Structure formats: structure tokens, C-alpha cells
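Quick question: what would this complex look like in 3D?
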Amino acid sequence: MSSELKRKEKKFQVQFMLHIAMFMAVLAGSVVMNETNNLSIISKGFLAMSPVVPMIFLLRLVISHYRSLDEYIQSVMGESLLWAVGVVGCVAMAYGLLAEMVAVPTFSPAFMLPAIAVIFGIAQFIQLRGDNHEE
Amino acid sequence: MKNRLRVLRAENGWSQAELAEKLGVSRQAVNAIETGKHDPSLNLAFSIADIFGQRIEELFLPKG
């Protein structure tokens, strides 16, 4: 990786962690506020969805980082994202169809984004694995 | 697309990381181009040709 790319990568990692910290803080704040105050249903609704706001900022950060990467890494990330969305989508669809026929435990859709992120990371690791050693 | 990138890089005594630094791309990108896993864009191909002082058609050859 060129020194310019290394510098950008380091900056991205720091910003990424700050966004995750912001998400955790908002999530904790919304849970505490919801449990300690007697709020109206509308306020509860806004409070429940508030952790999505830092996630939108995180999405902007990731897209901006993607644009700064070289064409090969961009293509790897694009394919990894397709795998992640495809796998999670297929599993969700299969589970949904199963739930129509059989009584199965319900899962919160809030877990879909973390699942996509994990599968995205695994797919990226697998694709770049072969490129990490110099021949 | 086949290419002579690895040969030319070796002739110049550069590592993949050094070539990547000159091109402003990741080392993985250089590796992927050398192994034929990734065909570079026209822009990157021109940059590679420029660094080695060659023409694109001398560096990149069609498969077959």
C-alpha cells in the first residue's frame, strides 16, 4: 500500500472507531432515557430510532473512503458487498418463507446490518487473501 | 489480458510495494495485475506504461 493510501487508511480507521463510539453512546443514551423517563409514544419512537443517525454518518464515511481507494480494492469491496447483501437477503427470504409454514423464533431486523457488515468483512478477507503475499 | 509487469518490475529491481507507491495504488492491486486477476483501467495502464517508459501495447497483450 502506498504511503498516501496508508495515511488515508489510518485516518479512516480512527474516524470509523469514533463513529462506532458515537453509535454506542446514542444507543446507550436512548435506552437509559427510555427506561428512566415516562415518555409519549412518539418520543419513544424517535428515541428508539435515534441510533440510526450515527449509522447514516458512518455510511457517509464508508462511501467517502470507498471513493478514495484504488480501482482494484473498489472492485473487491463491490463484489464483497454483493455477496453480503445476497447472502443475508437469501437467508432472510428463506427464513421468512419458513416462518409462513412453521412456527420459528422471530429475529429483529436490527440484526440485518451487522450481519451484512460481518459477511462483507469475511468476503473481503477471502478475496484479498491471495494478494497478501508478494511473489 | 496478459502483461509483462512482473518482468519489468524485476528488471528495475522494484518490489511490489515500491511500484505500488509510484503508482499510488495498493500493493494488492499490483499483485492482482501481475497475476492477471485484475485488468487495470486505461488510466492506470497509461500510468504503468509511463513509469516503465514503454507503450501500453508493449506492456499489455491480449489473451490467446
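Answer marked as accepted. The two ends of chain A are 15 Å apart (CA to CA).
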